[in-house]
Amino acid sequence: MLSRSWKQLCRRYSQAVNFRTTEASPSQHNENQIGMFYTMQPDTCKQLFGHGGFPRSFMKQTKTFTEAAVMVRQPALDLIDCIKATDFDKPAIRYVLYGEKGTGKSLTLAHLLHYAHEQGFLIVHVPWVSEWLRRIPRHKEMANSPTREGFVDLPLEAAAWLLHFKTQNQAILKQGDLKVSNEYVWSKREKTEAGATLAELVELGINRVKYACDVVDALVQEIKILSNNKLCKTFVAVDGFNSFFYPLTRLRTPTKRSVKPEEVSLTTSFLEITKNDWKNGAIVLTADELAVPDDHQESYLPKYLLFRKGFEHLDPFVPVEVGRYSDKEFLSCASYYRDRLWLRGPPEMENELKFTSACNPYKFMEQCAPL
Protein backbone atom coordinates (compact mmCIF):
# COMPACT_ATOMS: atom_id res chain seq x y z
CA MET A 1 0.00 0.00 0.00
CA LEU A 2 1.25 3.49 -0.83
CA SER A 3 1.41 5.97 2.01
CA ARG A 4 -0.95 8.92 1.89
CA SER A 5 1.94 11.39 1.58
CA TRP A 6 3.33 9.51 -1.46
CA LYS A 7 -0.06 9.54 -3.17
CA GLN A 8 -0.35 13.27 -2.54
CA LEU A 9 3.14 13.79 -4.00
CA CYS A 10 2.17 11.91 -7.19
CA ARG A 11 -1.01 13.91 -7.56
CA ARG A 12 0.74 17.25 -7.02
CA TYR A 13 3.28 16.33 -9.68
CA SER A 14 0.59 15.27 -12.17
CA GLN A 15 -1.32 18.51 -11.63
CA ALA A 16 1.74 20.50 -12.70
CA VAL A 17 1.00 19.50 -16.30
CA ASN A 18 -2.38 20.22 -17.84
CA PHE A 19 -3.10 16.76 -19.21
CA ARG A 20 -6.92 16.80 -19.26
CA THR A 21 -9.48 18.69 -21.29
CA THR A 22 -13.06 19.11 -20.19
CA GLU A 23 -14.21 19.24 -23.83
CA ALA A 24 -15.81 15.83 -24.36
CA SER A 25 -17.09 16.49 -27.89
CA PRO A 26 -14.69 15.35 -30.66
CA SER A 27 -16.16 17.91 -33.05
CA GLN A 28 -14.93 20.68 -30.73
CA HIS A 29 -11.40 19.36 -30.32
CA ASN A 30 -8.67 21.55 -31.79
CA GLU A 31 -4.91 22.01 -31.79
CA ASN A 32 -5.00 23.69 -28.37
CA GLN A 33 -5.95 20.32 -26.89
CA ILE A 34 -3.30 18.18 -28.57
CA GLY A 35 -1.75 15.86 -26.01
CA MET A 36 -4.65 16.23 -23.58
CA PHE A 37 -6.96 13.40 -22.54
CA TYR A 38 -10.73 13.59 -22.84
CA THR A 39 -13.04 11.13 -21.13
CA MET A 40 -15.76 9.23 -22.99
CA GLN A 41 -19.03 8.73 -21.21
CA PRO A 42 -19.59 5.10 -20.07
CA ASP A 43 -22.85 4.82 -22.08
CA THR A 44 -21.09 5.97 -25.24
CA CYS A 45 -18.23 3.52 -24.67
CA LYS A 46 -20.66 0.66 -24.17
CA GLN A 47 -22.61 1.52 -27.30
CA LEU A 48 -19.65 2.07 -29.61
CA PHE A 49 -17.09 -0.38 -28.22
CA GLY A 50 -19.07 -2.91 -26.21
CA HIS A 51 -18.47 -5.50 -28.95
CA GLY A 52 -14.92 -4.47 -29.82
CA GLY A 53 -12.95 -1.53 -31.11
CA PHE A 54 -10.60 -0.78 -28.25
CA PRO A 55 -7.32 -2.74 -28.11
CA ARG A 56 -7.35 -5.38 -25.38
CA SER A 57 -4.56 -3.69 -23.47
CA PHE A 58 -6.52 -0.44 -23.48
CA MET A 59 -9.67 -2.22 -22.30
CA LYS A 60 -7.76 -3.61 -19.31
CA GLN A 61 -6.42 -0.15 -18.65
CA THR A 62 -9.90 1.40 -18.66
CA LYS A 63 -10.99 -1.06 -15.99
CA THR A 64 -7.90 -0.29 -13.92
CA PHE A 65 -8.32 3.48 -14.32
CA THR A 66 -12.15 3.31 -14.00
CA GLU A 67 -12.52 5.57 -17.04
CA ALA A 68 -11.97 5.58 -20.79
CA ALA A 69 -9.67 8.51 -21.47
CA VAL A 70 -8.41 9.04 -25.03
CA MET A 71 -5.63 11.41 -25.98
CA VAL A 72 -6.39 14.10 -28.55
CA ARG A 73 -3.75 13.68 -31.25
CA GLN A 74 -2.93 15.40 -34.51
CA PRO A 75 -3.88 12.54 -36.92
CA ALA A 76 -7.42 12.40 -35.50
CA LEU A 77 -7.79 16.18 -35.71
CA ASP A 78 -6.54 16.17 -39.30
CA LEU A 79 -9.07 13.54 -40.31
CA ILE A 80 -11.93 15.26 -38.48
CA ASP A 81 -11.08 18.46 -40.38
CA CYS A 82 -10.99 16.52 -43.65
CA ILE A 83 -14.39 14.96 -42.97
CA LYS A 84 -15.86 18.34 -42.04
CA ALA A 85 -14.59 19.76 -45.35
CA THR A 86 -15.79 16.78 -47.43
CA ASP A 87 -18.05 17.33 -50.41
CA PHE A 88 -20.47 14.46 -49.80
CA ASP A 89 -21.81 14.72 -53.35
CA LYS A 90 -18.51 13.25 -54.54
CA PRO A 91 -17.37 9.59 -54.20
CA ALA A 92 -16.38 8.55 -50.68
CA ILE A 93 -12.75 9.32 -49.86
CA ARG A 94 -10.60 6.50 -48.44
CA TYR A 95 -8.18 7.33 -45.62
CA VAL A 96 -5.56 4.83 -44.44
CA LEU A 97 -4.04 5.14 -40.96
CA TYR A 98 -0.57 3.62 -40.75
CA GLY A 99 2.41 3.66 -38.43
CA GLU A 100 4.69 1.53 -36.28
CA LYS A 101 3.31 -1.08 -33.91
CA GLY A 102 1.78 0.43 -30.81
CA THR A 103 1.61 4.06 -31.93
CA GLY A 104 -2.16 4.35 -31.46
CA LYS A 105 -3.86 3.66 -34.80
CA SER A 106 -6.79 1.83 -33.19
CA LEU A 107 -7.34 4.58 -30.62
CA THR A 108 -7.19 7.22 -33.36
CA LEU A 109 -9.89 5.22 -35.14
CA ALA A 110 -11.88 5.09 -31.89
CA HIS A 111 -11.67 8.89 -31.61
CA LEU A 112 -13.02 9.18 -35.16
CA LEU A 113 -15.81 6.70 -34.44
CA HIS A 114 -16.88 8.86 -31.51
CA TYR A 115 -16.93 11.87 -33.83
CA ALA A 116 -18.99 10.01 -36.45
CA HIS A 117 -21.46 8.83 -33.80
CA GLU A 118 -21.86 12.35 -32.48
CA GLN A 119 -22.46 13.70 -36.01
CA GLY A 120 -25.21 11.19 -36.78
CA PHE A 121 -23.35 9.01 -39.28
CA LEU A 122 -24.52 5.46 -39.90
CA ILE A 123 -21.49 3.49 -38.70
CA VAL A 124 -20.11 0.40 -40.45
CA HIS A 125 -17.29 -0.73 -38.19
CA VAL A 126 -15.12 -3.85 -38.20
CA PRO A 127 -13.16 -3.85 -34.91
CA TRP A 128 -10.38 -6.21 -36.00
CA VAL A 129 -10.35 -8.23 -39.25
CA SER A 130 -7.92 -10.81 -37.85
CA GLU A 131 -10.59 -11.97 -35.40
CA TRP A 132 -12.32 -13.51 -38.40
CA LEU A 133 -9.39 -14.81 -40.38
CA ARG A 134 -6.64 -15.60 -37.87
CA ARG A 135 -8.06 -16.77 -34.53
CA ILE A 136 -8.88 -20.48 -34.71
CA PRO A 137 -10.86 -20.95 -31.45
CA ARG A 138 -13.54 -18.51 -32.52
CA HIS A 139 -14.30 -20.38 -35.73
CA LYS A 140 -16.25 -23.31 -34.34
CA GLU A 141 -18.68 -23.10 -37.21
CA MET A 142 -17.71 -22.71 -40.84
CA ALA A 143 -19.94 -23.71 -43.75
CA ASN A 144 -19.93 -23.63 -47.52
CA SER A 145 -21.92 -20.67 -48.76
CA PRO A 146 -25.33 -21.83 -50.09
CA THR A 147 -25.60 -18.83 -52.42
CA ARG A 148 -22.03 -18.31 -53.65
CA GLU A 149 -20.17 -21.28 -55.04
CA GLY A 150 -16.59 -21.64 -53.85
CA PHE A 151 -17.07 -19.38 -50.81
CA VAL A 152 -17.21 -20.24 -47.13
CA ASP A 153 -19.46 -18.59 -44.54
CA LEU A 154 -18.65 -17.70 -40.95
CA PRO A 155 -22.24 -17.41 -39.71
CA LEU A 156 -21.49 -16.90 -36.02
CA GLU A 157 -19.01 -14.15 -36.81
CA ALA A 158 -21.49 -12.50 -39.17
CA ALA A 159 -24.29 -12.60 -36.60
CA ALA A 160 -21.99 -11.14 -33.94
CA TRP A 161 -21.03 -8.32 -36.30
CA LEU A 162 -24.71 -7.59 -37.06
CA LEU A 163 -25.33 -7.27 -33.31
CA HIS A 164 -22.38 -4.86 -33.14
CA PHE A 165 -23.84 -2.85 -36.04
CA LYS A 166 -27.27 -2.79 -34.37
CA THR A 167 -25.82 -1.60 -31.06
CA GLN A 168 -23.70 1.17 -32.58
CA ASN A 169 -26.57 2.49 -34.71
CA GLN A 170 -29.50 1.84 -32.37
CA ALA A 171 -30.77 5.44 -32.43
CA ILE A 172 -30.73 5.68 -36.25
CA LEU A 173 -32.28 2.24 -36.75
CA LYS A 174 -35.10 2.94 -34.26
CA GLN A 175 -36.26 5.90 -36.34
CA GLY A 176 -37.37 3.50 -39.08
CA ASP A 177 -36.56 5.98 -41.85
CA LEU A 178 -34.10 3.65 -43.59
CA LYS A 179 -35.93 1.23 -45.89
CA VAL A 180 -34.75 -1.74 -47.92
CA SER A 181 -35.10 -1.14 -51.67
CA ASN A 182 -34.92 -4.76 -52.87
CA GLU A 183 -36.69 -7.98 -51.96
CA TYR A 184 -34.51 -10.73 -50.48
CA VAL A 185 -35.68 -14.34 -50.48
CA TRP A 186 -33.94 -16.46 -47.85
CA SER A 187 -35.99 -19.64 -48.14
CA LYS A 188 -39.40 -20.81 -49.33
CA ARG A 189 -40.96 -19.37 -46.19
CA GLU A 190 -38.70 -16.48 -45.31
CA LYS A 191 -38.04 -13.30 -47.16
CA THR A 192 -37.47 -9.60 -46.57
CA GLU A 193 -39.90 -7.46 -48.52
CA ALA A 194 -38.85 -4.33 -50.34
CA GLY A 195 -39.83 -1.45 -48.09
CA ALA A 196 -38.96 -3.25 -44.86
CA THR A 197 -36.82 -1.28 -42.44
CA LEU A 198 -33.09 -1.77 -42.26
CA ALA A 199 -33.59 -2.79 -38.62
CA GLU A 200 -35.77 -5.72 -39.72
CA LEU A 201 -33.06 -6.93 -42.09
CA VAL A 202 -30.47 -6.74 -39.32
CA GLU A 203 -32.74 -8.57 -36.84
CA LEU A 204 -33.26 -11.40 -39.30
CA GLY A 205 -29.53 -11.93 -39.61
CA ILE A 206 -29.11 -11.95 -35.82
CA ASN A 207 -31.99 -14.34 -35.17
CA ARG A 208 -31.44 -16.60 -38.20
CA VAL A 209 -27.69 -17.18 -38.02
CA LYS A 210 -27.83 -19.48 -41.05
CA TYR A 211 -28.46 -16.44 -43.26
CA ALA A 212 -26.21 -13.98 -41.40
CA CYS A 213 -23.47 -13.77 -44.06
CA ASP A 214 -25.98 -13.17 -46.84
CA VAL A 215 -27.71 -10.57 -44.67
CA VAL A 216 -24.38 -8.74 -44.20
CA ASP A 217 -23.92 -8.73 -47.98
CA ALA A 218 -27.46 -7.41 -48.51
CA LEU A 219 -26.97 -4.81 -45.78
CA VAL A 220 -23.83 -3.48 -47.47
CA GLN A 221 -25.64 -3.12 -50.79
CA GLU A 222 -28.57 -1.36 -49.15
CA ILE A 223 -26.35 1.05 -47.21
CA LYS A 224 -24.65 2.10 -50.44
CA ILE A 225 -28.04 2.73 -52.06
CA LEU A 226 -29.29 4.70 -49.04
CA SER A 227 -26.12 6.80 -48.97
CA ASN A 228 -26.32 7.51 -52.70
CA ASN A 229 -29.92 8.65 -52.21
CA LYS A 230 -28.81 10.92 -49.32
CA LEU A 231 -31.01 9.12 -46.82
CA CYS A 232 -28.05 8.67 -44.51
CA LYS A 233 -24.38 9.62 -44.15
CA THR A 234 -22.17 6.57 -43.71
CA PHE A 235 -18.90 6.23 -41.86
CA VAL A 236 -16.94 3.05 -42.66
CA ALA A 237 -14.14 2.06 -40.27
CA VAL A 238 -12.11 -1.15 -40.61
CA ASP A 239 -9.21 -1.91 -38.28
CA GLY A 240 -6.50 -4.20 -39.66
CA PHE A 241 -7.81 -3.89 -43.22
CA ASN A 242 -4.60 -5.34 -44.70
CA SER A 243 -5.53 -8.72 -43.19
CA PHE A 244 -8.00 -9.15 -46.06
CA PHE A 245 -5.05 -9.37 -48.49
CA TYR A 246 -2.59 -11.60 -46.64
CA PRO A 247 -2.27 -14.75 -48.81
CA LEU A 248 -3.34 -17.26 -46.13
CA THR A 249 -5.77 -17.57 -43.24
CA ARG A 250 -5.93 -20.08 -40.40
CA LEU A 251 -9.27 -21.37 -41.63
CA ARG A 252 -9.34 -24.94 -42.86
CA THR A 253 -11.97 -26.85 -44.82
CA PRO A 254 -12.98 -30.37 -43.69
CA THR A 255 -10.40 -31.67 -46.19
CA LYS A 256 -7.70 -29.59 -44.40
CA ARG A 257 -7.36 -27.17 -47.30
CA SER A 258 -6.37 -23.65 -46.30
CA VAL A 259 -9.01 -21.05 -47.09
CA LYS A 260 -7.85 -17.86 -48.80
CA PRO A 261 -9.22 -14.49 -47.60
CA GLU A 262 -10.98 -13.87 -50.91
CA GLU A 263 -12.87 -17.14 -50.45
CA VAL A 264 -14.56 -15.91 -47.26
CA SER A 265 -17.94 -14.32 -47.94
CA LEU A 266 -17.45 -11.63 -45.28
CA THR A 267 -14.32 -10.48 -47.11
CA THR A 268 -16.24 -9.75 -50.30
CA SER A 269 -18.89 -7.78 -48.38
CA PHE A 270 -16.41 -5.42 -46.76
CA LEU A 271 -14.31 -5.05 -49.88
CA GLU A 272 -17.54 -3.93 -51.53
CA ILE A 273 -18.27 -1.22 -48.93
CA THR A 274 -14.69 0.08 -49.15
CA LYS A 275 -14.95 0.81 -52.88
CA ASN A 276 -15.39 4.46 -53.80
CA ASP A 277 -18.32 3.85 -56.14
CA TRP A 278 -20.78 5.45 -53.71
CA LYS A 279 -21.13 8.89 -52.13
CA ASN A 280 -22.31 10.64 -48.97
CA GLY A 281 -19.79 8.88 -46.77
CA ALA A 282 -16.22 8.55 -45.52
CA ILE A 283 -13.99 5.48 -45.24
CA VAL A 284 -11.19 5.19 -42.66
CA LEU A 285 -9.04 2.05 -42.58
CA THR A 286 -5.89 0.97 -40.78
CA ALA A 287 -2.93 -0.93 -42.19
CA ASP A 288 -1.31 -2.67 -39.23
CA GLU A 289 1.65 -5.04 -38.92
CA LEU A 290 -0.19 -6.87 -36.12
CA ALA A 291 -3.06 -7.74 -38.47
CA VAL A 292 -1.04 -10.53 -40.12
CA PRO A 293 0.91 -13.41 -38.52
CA ASP A 294 4.25 -12.58 -40.14
CA ASP A 295 6.70 -11.47 -37.42
CA HIS A 296 9.33 -10.31 -39.93
CA GLN A 297 7.67 -7.29 -41.50
CA GLU A 298 10.07 -5.18 -43.52
CA SER A 299 7.97 -2.01 -43.43
CA TYR A 300 4.87 -0.50 -41.83
CA LEU A 301 4.02 1.52 -44.94
CA PRO A 302 0.62 0.86 -46.62
CA LYS A 303 2.15 -0.10 -49.97
CA TYR A 304 3.98 -2.97 -48.27
CA LEU A 305 1.27 -4.13 -45.87
CA LEU A 306 -1.64 -4.00 -48.34
CA PHE A 307 0.18 -6.03 -50.97
CA ARG A 308 -0.41 -5.17 -54.59
CA LYS A 309 -4.04 -6.31 -54.59
CA GLY A 310 -5.01 -4.26 -51.57
CA PHE A 311 -3.15 -1.18 -52.77
CA GLU A 312 -4.88 -1.32 -56.15
CA HIS A 313 -8.25 -1.85 -54.43
CA LEU A 314 -7.85 1.37 -52.41
CA ASP A 315 -6.02 3.53 -54.95
CA PRO A 316 -6.51 6.49 -54.71
CA PHE A 317 -6.45 6.96 -50.95
CA VAL A 318 -5.12 9.46 -48.42
CA PRO A 319 -2.39 8.04 -46.13
CA VAL A 320 -2.28 9.41 -42.58
CA GLU A 321 0.65 8.46 -40.35
CA VAL A 322 0.15 7.91 -36.63
CA GLY A 323 3.55 8.50 -35.09
CA ARG A 324 5.19 8.16 -31.70
CA TYR A 325 4.50 10.59 -28.90
CA SER A 326 5.88 14.08 -29.21
CA ASP A 327 7.63 15.52 -26.14
CA LYS A 328 4.42 17.27 -25.15
CA GLU A 329 2.33 14.11 -25.57
CA PHE A 330 4.81 12.01 -23.63
CA LEU A 331 4.84 14.43 -20.72
CA SER A 332 1.04 14.59 -20.75
CA CYS A 333 0.76 10.79 -20.78
CA ALA A 334 3.26 10.48 -17.93
CA SER A 335 1.25 12.97 -15.90
CA TYR A 336 -1.94 11.05 -16.58
CA TYR A 337 -0.33 7.78 -15.50
CA ARG A 338 0.87 9.42 -12.29
CA ASP A 339 -2.61 10.74 -11.66
CA ARG A 340 -3.95 7.20 -12.03
CA LEU A 341 -1.06 5.82 -9.91
CA TRP A 342 0.02 3.72 -12.88
CA LEU A 343 3.45 5.33 -12.89
CA ARG A 344 5.27 5.57 -9.59
CA GLY A 345 8.73 6.66 -8.64
CA PRO A 346 10.78 9.85 -8.75
CA PRO A 347 10.15 12.32 -11.61
CA GLU A 348 13.67 11.67 -12.91
CA MET A 349 12.51 8.19 -13.92
CA GLU A 350 10.56 9.64 -16.83
CA ASN A 351 13.72 10.56 -18.74
CA GLU A 352 14.80 6.94 -18.62
CA LEU A 353 11.35 5.71 -19.65
CA LYS A 354 11.32 8.17 -22.52
CA PHE A 355 14.59 6.70 -23.74
CA THR A 356 13.73 3.01 -23.23
CA SER A 357 10.23 3.28 -24.75
CA ALA A 358 11.40 5.54 -27.60
CA CYS A 359 8.13 7.45 -27.02
CA ASN A 360 6.13 4.51 -28.34
CA PRO A 361 2.71 4.72 -26.61
CA TYR A 362 2.24 0.97 -26.14
CA LYS A 363 5.79 0.35 -24.94
CA PHE A 364 5.51 3.24 -22.52
CA MET A 365 2.27 1.86 -21.11
CA GLU A 366 3.81 -1.59 -20.71
CA GLN A 367 6.91 -0.30 -18.98
CA CYS A 368 4.88 1.76 -16.51
CA ALA A 369 2.71 -1.19 -15.41
CA PRO A 370 5.21 -2.78 -12.96
CA LEU A 371 6.51 0.54 -11.64
Q: What is the number of beta strands? A: 11
Largest sheet entry: 5 strands, parallel
Order of helices and strands: HEHHEHEHEHEEHHEEHHEHEHHEHHH
- Average pLDDT reading: 91
Distance between the termini: 13 Å
Q: What form results from the Cα inertia axes?
A: globular
What percent of the residues sit in helical stretches (DSSP H or I)? 40-55%
**For the largest beta sheet, what order do the strands appear in spatially?**
4-9-10-3-11
> Residue ranges: pLDDT <50 for 5 or more in a row?
none
> Please, how many helices?
16
| Class derived from helix and strand content | alpha/beta
Integer count of domains: 2
Radius of gyration: 22 Å
% residues in beta strands: 5-15%
